[in-house]
Amino acid sequence: MHTTPRRIAATIAVTAALAFLTAAPSDAAAARRVDSHCGTYICVHTAHHNRFVQDITVQTKDGLSGTLRAYWGNYHSSRVNAASRRWEVGYEQAGASLVCGGLERDGRSIEDGICVTI
User: How many angstroms separate the CA atoms of 84 and 82, rounded?
Assistant: First the structure.
């Protein structure tokens, strides 16, 4: 008869211990982030760990295609005709604090310098 309460208590203790062990440290969540900033026509999103940029996504807000590009520090992506584009970067730029994007349509710059602070 006493084994049932002991089993329940043991199960609760193991569950609590596993939840504690699998929880991510609070500073790890703050270090790895996805940040975004939108202008009038485009949004720029970046996933980064401190200044280690993992990827940059530039997308149009209206869903229409245009020539998109992304840049930061000495990184300048190739220009792509699309409504949304993700560039995998995967390196750290020591002196750069902004990740930016731009949009051109019909040879004209529609929006440029929409930046995310990293």
Answer: 5
